[in-house]
Fold this protein.
Amino acid sequence: MTIFDENLILETINMIKLHNFDVRTVTLSISLRDCLSENINTVCDKIKVKLDKYASNLVKYANEIENDYSIPIVNKRIAVTPISLVGESCKDKDFVKIARTLDDSAKNLGIDFVGGFSALVEKGFTQGDEALINAIPEALATTDRLCSSVNVGTSKAGINMDAVLKMAETIKKSAELTADKDGIAAAKLVIFCNSVGDNPFMAGAYSGFGEPECALNVGVSGPGVVRAAILDIDKKADLGVLSNKIKQTAYKITGTGELIGRRLAKMLNVPFGVVDLSLAPTPAVGDSVAQIFQAMGLEHAGAHGTTAALAMLNDAVKKGGIMASSYVGGLSGAFIPVSEDAGMIEAASKGYLTFDKLEAMTCVCSVGLDMIAIPGDTPSSTIAGMIADEMAIGMINKKTTAVRIIPAPKKKIGDKIIYGGLLGEAPVMGVNQLSSYDFVTRGGRIPAPIHSLNN
């Protein structure tokens, strides 16, 4: 006879109903390496067939599991091989056509987002890379579900500053083409250092070179659960006790994510990939990383001590997750997207959280400068400087860093961008007015650090 733990059942119910616990995404990673052809129409036809073959039941089965376990699965997504590689084989490198093919397939399959309109250019550009990057603004402006990422640096290769400047210009153009929607195309574009090929979260998901033909990756999120766990212990408990509580909570969340992922992978008859335990917030009250800092004892996100609190949170989440599963991957840690976190929105609006403080926090979080709105007239060279700074943090510290900046067209400091849904809203934040132009336009490659020679 099975004995049920009443307390554990109640705890799980509370995690879901009261503290916004969910499976943020199930992301099917699909290789398109066998879709290459000299003919662009053949490539697009092969992509449709491939996505239909593996993803036709993704939404149906995910919904069945959601009903069986009463655990919300918020997004169903697809990540594909970097499209710069797929389209490079074509004589007519019409990457916008491929973008629309991916977007149409996602709509037909009921998929929320498709990632992988991507290029990896840390050491330079191929013809396919250049063609894809040139197509990004139009591709993102004329599609709804497509997401794009470009990796411009690694700890082994250094930082491609030609790519940094080009991506700054691409971000500006993407935002301007969607000015009527507060520059939303820029919100679907992320620039990476040390990107990972099994990340299930958008906008940076793609199917990496070492990934199998198809795999199911799961992104689990529970900032509200972590916050509630912290509030449940003695306010005078020391930081070691606090860290252990976060680890224990992360352990439970990770186990749930792997259970869902393995069940769905089995139903789809594909391998289970990884569970990514990233505390990805939402605009919902209580589902906030910033509010975790307050539960820890800070008056608000942005106070002195915020970076230390985030470092401890990120480390404890990783330690708890790795004990729960042998297949923790992706990014796993804590995200700090301004527009997607109710507490971060409040802190930025009140001036508690500045751009420079956010940059400092990226040294110890899972990603980087994320969903930050800046004035639309910010020069491309200044945006390039922001990207270069963030890439340097990733390169030197051998970690993934990223930039998802929205230069909000016709908006100035204090205005708002409003997207709704998971993308939320954000105040337009001030940026440093000093010029970066002469530095970022030098071009070339910032060499890799000495610790890259570690063979």
